[in-house]
Amino acid sequence: MVDNDSDVVKEKGKYSPGLALYRFIIDSLPSAVLTVNADLKITGFNPWAEKVTGYSAKEALGQYCGEILQGGRCHAHCPLRTVLNGHRAVSLVETTIVSKWGETIPVRMNTAGLFDDNDHLIGGVESFQDISRLKSLEREKDNLISMLAHDMKSSLTIIGGFALRLLKKARQIDDEKKNKYLGIIKNESSKLESLINDFLEFSRLQTGRLKLNFSATSLDKELMEISDSYQVKASQSGLKLELQNEKELSIIDADASQIRRVFTNLLDNAIKFSKKQGTITITTKETAENVIVKVKDEGIGIARNELPYIFDSFHRGKGAEKKEGFGLGLAGVKAIVEGHGGRVIVKNEPVKGSVFTVVLPKVKDTIK
Question: Whole-structure pTM over 0.70, yes or no?
Fold first, then answer.
């Protein structure tokens, strides 16, 4: 699939039937595939490559592959360059690429050379699959084990300890201490209940069992009500909350209650990690197809190496160890937004905090 017509090998003035079949097969593969010429410029970009990267074939063709993929191995250990230099015929690696929207995507990549009928190297072909879900499940398993070992065991140990004390020394403990112990038991059992409820809710979101009820929704109305309700909470934390939405937004097709959860979770997160005297800003804009909402804080920020995992369930980054919560809020945000056919992106601004961008389609479209 040396895809551009100008680059296609011709036989006696006609396109090769074999090459046409080759192009058809590559375009039909459920895997992202791109081809390059000897200068590493993209000559072919199939529909799955468009889906994974966010770039259209029109945008990608003629560009250096490194400019489009921004891969983790593009500079030091470029798989395509290795193939074209003849060091290896095929390479299979796990690496990352960066999508058009700035998302870091883990991929499994295969690379091989393209040869003409005389076995002359004319370019390279690279196929890659998004393994975000696989990597996320691996991390979630590790995080779940860590969480069970720490959070649940901690609460159960406290509950068991005070319950045993009440059973063994009931006659020696006055009513004031009994009430204190029972209060501790109640608080710890509430933590466990909250964790279990959050986990079950997230599980329903991930498996699609939580149905979204789509209807005409005014994001302006929802954001104004949320902003008003969070003014006191922000003020109590020494923060300023601003909603900047001067232009009226279009009505979108969405589940209003779940969209509220998205932005309350983002605001809870911003308040939790913001520095005192900082400002949390909500800004809105829209394009022909989408409504875009940004939640920006002036907090502690997110470590660069944690950005790819920030939406994993049970992930708690540096600085979150002493904060309340189980690391399920942002995972829920991602599941709800993607259930609407949208996407959520996080960017870190050094010393300035982080920015969460929620992109929601105006018309329901859950096909990813």
Answer: no
Show the tokens assigned to 365: 């479209």
Whole-angstrom distance, CA of residue 326 vs CA of residue 195 = 7
Q: What is the DSSP letter of 43?
A: E
Verify that 146 and 46 share a domain, yes or no: no
Question: Are 54 and 181 part of one and the same domain?
Answer: no
Alpha carbon distances (Å) from 83 to 115, 121, 126: 12, 10, 10
Domain extent at residue 119: 5-130
Tell me the β-bridge partners of 91: 111
pLDDT band at residue 72, thresholds of 50, 70 and 90? low
Sheet containing strand 32-37, edge to edge, reads: 42-45, 32-37, 121-130, 104-115, 90-98
If asked whether residues 113 and 16 sit together in one domain, one would say: yes
CA 177 – CA 183 distance, rounded (Å)? 10
Provide the β-strand partners of residue 218: none
Write the burial class of residue 326 (CB in 10 Å: 0-12 exposed, 13-18 middle, 19+ buried).
buried
Torsion sign (Cα): 79, 82, 85, 90? negative
Angle at 153 between CA 150 and CA 154, to 5 degrees: 75
Structure tokens at 289: 């197809």
Q: Residues of the chain with pLDDT > 90: what percent? A: 24
Query: Are residues 229 and 99 located together in one domain of the fold?
Result: no
Buried b (16+ CB within 10 A) or exposed e, 301-315: bbeeebbbbbbbbbb
Q: State the DSSP string of 221-258.
A: HHHHHHHHHHHHHHHHTT-EEEEE--SPPPPEEE-HHH
